[in-house]
Specification:
Rossmann fold; single chain; alpha/beta
């Protein structure tokens, strides 16, 4: 089953008191419909509406009140209205009928016993259509590409998955888990790609799927653009984004274009709303609160690393390497680490951050910052000796704690390090394949401190 994490969240939603209608967010093609179809097996009755279909739209365009809507819905879908407390109603592509979004509040207020889930893309576009969003009367979950644990489950690697989830991982599992992670790093986490690979084990056949995915995103662009000129700008931004992913970017002339900063800024922010990309802005402090500096150049994170590999033309480089950090100047594995860190986040406001110190005399940059136990934990993605982690040492010099993480291709271990001034801190050396388990390992690290 894809996305076990979301499935657990859905079960929690089903069981809790005061449940509200649930909106599933996520980019197109990440499996929103599939995961809800799977979740529907938990219910006695299931009603599926796809608001791209005219016959399903009519329920929301012709209703006079909630009672009439419910009666017609259950009657035409051949379900028992008396069992609505055992029924899941899934409204897919809800953005196609903006009035349906507004009606979610009435499901919450008038039919709380009915389980209601909605899904759609680019819901922010509805704000400009004078639609009243049911603030405070809905909940949100975000669905992202398949994580490494979900990849193992999908490909039948149950023994590897069991070892992955043991804390700490057994040394004998390292070689196999690293080999499987190389495959995951190559193909990425788009559900259609993972499903095809799981069924056929043919990596060369996946390129047509990457092509069709990007084509579907480009074809979708008219729904998001506000003018013909912006259609062209967003189309350029989509294709350029997958070639610039993992790098710090400037909006001016993005992707070797002649577009101005304002034009590309608007196009990229539109793509961020569709969840095709994330613009990661740096922080300059080592303490809470997290305050990203939007005046500095952001780093570009795209939806999926497998698509990055395909459009950047680095697939053969990944196949032929023993060290993922050697590929694409380290950009690919850093990007995948970011993808794995995001995969554990189901909150609609979740994002990634990195740290910079930019001074005339010297500069430093730490790949990611992770909030853990009210601490901002630095994460560097880098192979080699601990002594080469200069930016990490500089971060820990001023950080009010003693915990840091290095993600690399070696085995799990904890080392005691010292900053330039001699400050002692504990470095968790985490194999690439354990990034999805990072919060568990940070808890483990805290317990191990007293033994070192």
């Amino acid at each position: 089953m894809f996305n076990r994490g979301i499935h657990k969240e859905l079960l929690h939603w089903k069981q809790k008191n005061g449940r509200k209608p649930l909106i599933i967010r996520g980019a197109r093609q990440v499996g929103k419909t599939t995961i809800i179809h799977q979740f529907a097996t938990e219910f006695k009755q299931y009603i599926y509406l796809n608001l791209e279909l005219p016959e399903d739209k009519q329920f929301f365009l012709q209703f006079s009140n909630m009672d009439t809507l419910l009666q017609s819905l259950f009657f035409l879908k051949n379900k028992e209205l008396s069992r609505k407390h055992e029924t899941l109603l899934f409204i897919d592509e809800i953005q196609e009928v903006p009035e349906a979004v507004h009606l979610l509040r009435y499901f919450y207020e008038q039919v709380p016993e009915l389980y209601v889930v909605a899904a759609g893309s680019m819901l922010e576009a509805l704000f400009s259509k004078n639609i009243s969003f049911p603030v405070g009367r809905v909940e949100y979950l975000v669905l992202r590409p398949v994580s490494f644990p979900e990849f193992l489950a999908a490909t039948g690697e149950t023994a590897a998955l069991q070892q992955l989830e043991k804390i700490p991982v057994a040394p004998f599992a390292h070689a196999k888990l690293l080999r499987l992670y190389h495959t995951y790093a190559l193909i990425g986490g788009m559900p259609e790609v993972v499903a095809h690979y799981a069924a056929n084990r043919d990596i060369t056949a996946l390129n047509t799927i990457y092509d069709s995915l990007i084509t579907s995103y480009i074809d979708d662009v008219e729904k998001y653009a506000v003018s013909p000129s912006q259609i062209q700008q967003i189309r350029h931004a989509i294709t350029a984004a997958f070639r610039q992913a993992g790098k710090r970017i400037k909006f001016q002339g993005f992707g070797n274009s002649a577009y101005a900063s304002r034009e590309m800024g608007e196009a990229l922010r539109t793509l961020q709303k569709t969840m095709l990309i994330h613009l990661l802005y740096p922080v300059t402090e080592t303490i809470l609160p997290i305050l990203p500096d939007s005046k500095k150049s952001p780093r570009l994170q795209v939806l999926d690393t497998g698509m990055l590999n395909y459009f950047a033309g680095i697939q053969k480089e990944i196949i032929g390497t023993e060290e993922l950090n050697d590929v694409y100047k380290g950009i690919m594995i850093e990007h995948l680490t970011g993808q794995e860190l995001l995969a554990t986040q189901t909150n609609a406001l979740s994002t990634l951050h990195f740290w910079v110190r930019e001074k005339n005399t010297s500069s430093a940059e730490v790949d990611f910052i992770r909030l853990f136990d009210s601490k901002l934990i630095p994460i560097e993605v880098k192979s080699g000796k601990e002594g080469k982690l200069k930016s990490l040492h500089q971060y820990m010099e001023v950080a009010p704690h003693s915990l840091a993480v290095r993600v690399y291709g070696g085995e799990l271990q904890i080392t005691v390090c010292h900053s330039v001034s001699g400050k002692k801190y504990f470095l968790l050396n985490l194999p690439y394949y354990l990034v999805s388990q990072i919060d568990h390992y940070l808890k483990w690290l805290v317990k191990q401190q007293s033994k070192l």
